[in-house]
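Chapter review: from sequence to fold.
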Amino acid sequence: MVAPDNRSTSASSEEVGAGPAMGAAPTTPCDPAEESAANPAVEAFHRIKEDAAELKEYAGYYLSAKIDGFRRTIRNLGLYAALGVLGLIAGGAIIATAAGLIIVGFATGLGRLFGGRMWLGDIVAGIVVLAIIAGMAWYMMNKLTGAWKSQTVKKYEERKQSQRERFGHDVDLQAERGRAEERRKAK
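The token string follows.
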């Protein structure tokens, strides 16, 4: 217990001689530093506050590192996309130039075959190139649509086979039964 302050004009019950008061709280104020040293709950609370501050700092550090990593990824994607676009432009220009030179050479050759009539060589070369492009487009469209159709037919045939295995019938058989039932009811 802390000694009473000498500046106080009132005396405690022990000073007067009445003996210690039963269950009475001390009348002298407690020093907070002394109380925290003696109270483990106060120490634990201060430690929890420090740990929470430390955890908050580490979480902020982690979040900042993740955001910076995300930004770096976005920057790299933008850089690679720009390089890809430049590559496509350059590659397209090279291919277009090569194709143009081939067609011009073909047209010049045809013009010489037609007795120096270069205009006729140009027209025939243009028609031949357009016919080749149209024929290739027609062939590819037929090939792709045929492949897509066969894949779709195969997919639904496999599903019907699965239905027959699981249920003993498939959608076609059930549809036929439904139509037969409607015809029977209509009579």
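Two observations follow directly from the output. The chain has a mean pLDDT of 85. The CA atoms of residues 51 and 133 lie 73 Å apart.
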